[in-house]
Design a protein that fits this description.
Oligomer: single chain
Order of helices and strands: HH
Radius of gyration: 14 Å
Helix content: over 70%
Largest sheet: none
Length: 62
C-alpha cells in the first residue's frame, strides 16, 4: 500500500486540477450554456468527493 503522505499529495493535486478545470469549463463560451453548467456540476461533485477523501483516505471511504 502506498504511503499516506503520497496519497494525500496526489489527492491534493487532483483537487487543484479538478477545481481549475471545473471553473474554466463552466465559463466556456463556445457551447450550449446548460451543457456547460451540467458538466461543471460533474466537476463540482468530483471536487467534494476528493475533498472528503483527503480527510478520510481509507479503502473503505472509496
Amino acid at each position: 500500500m502506498q504511503n499516506l503522505k503520497t496519497i494525500r499529495l496526489r489527492t491534493f493535486i487532483s483537487l487543484i486540477i479538478i477545481l481549475i478545470t471545473g471553473l474554466l469549463y463552466s465559463k466556456y463560451r463556445y457551447s450550449v450554456s446548460w451543457l456547460n453548467q451540467e458538466v461543471g456540476g460533474v466537476f463540482y461533485v468530483i471536487f467534494w468527493c476528493l475533498l472528503a477523501f483527503l480527510f478520510i483516505p481509507t479503502r473503505r471511504a472509496v
